[in-house]
Amino acid sequence: MKKSAFLMSVVFAASLGLAAPAFAAIEEAGDIETGNDLAEACTALVNHDVSAEGDLAAKACKGFLGDMVRNVVKATEPGAPTKFSRVGPKQDTTLCFEIPSKLSFDDFAKQVVAYHKAHPELDGRPAYETGAWSLSTNFPCAKDVKAP
């Protein structure tokens, strides 16, 4: 009888572990490495997940997106479009986008989550690619701007 009760408690504990949110390991922006990591963290932000894990994941999403935008702004001349080169599995793609003057974390996170849902091939790719593809889709360069 004791063996049966022990086995049931082990099975129960294991099932709780499987039911834990996938973003439980995402605590800060540095934990976000892949497109899937970014989408999971941003899903917590979009869904306003107030659990301890969800709050950490949402903060990680904000940190990653904020860092990405800050780096883009630093690397781009004022008023110029941003071009990301060497993107994709063969590193032969260039993306071009123009970040709007106002882009909230929530809006950017929603765009990342929506883009990720439509493009699961980015799951294992670097997280910045998912962010860049989201931006290039939602804020493409003007038609007269030529990407290299």
Describe, in plain words, how this protein is organized in 3D:
The chain has a two-stranded antiparallel sheet. The N terminus is likely disordered. Strand 1 and strand 2 form a beta hairpin. The protein is mainly alpha-helical. The chain has one domain. The longest helix has 24 residues. Helix 2 packs across helix 4.
Tally of strands: 2
Spans where pLDDT lies below 50 across 5 or more residues: 1-24
Biggest sheet strand line-up: 1-2
Multimerization state: single chain
Structural class by SSE content: mainly alpha
The CA-CA distance between the termini, in Å, is: 71 Å
How does the overall form come out from the CA principal axes? globular
Task: Describe the secondary-structure layout.
Blueprint: H1 2-19, H2 35-46, H3 52-75, E1 82-87, E2 93-97, H4 105-118, H5 127-138
Antiparallel strand pairs: 1-2
Helix pairs in contact: 2-3, 2-4, 2-5, 4-5
Quick recap:
With 148 residues, the chain is mostly helical.
Keywords:
single chain; 148 residues; mainly alpha; disordered N terminus
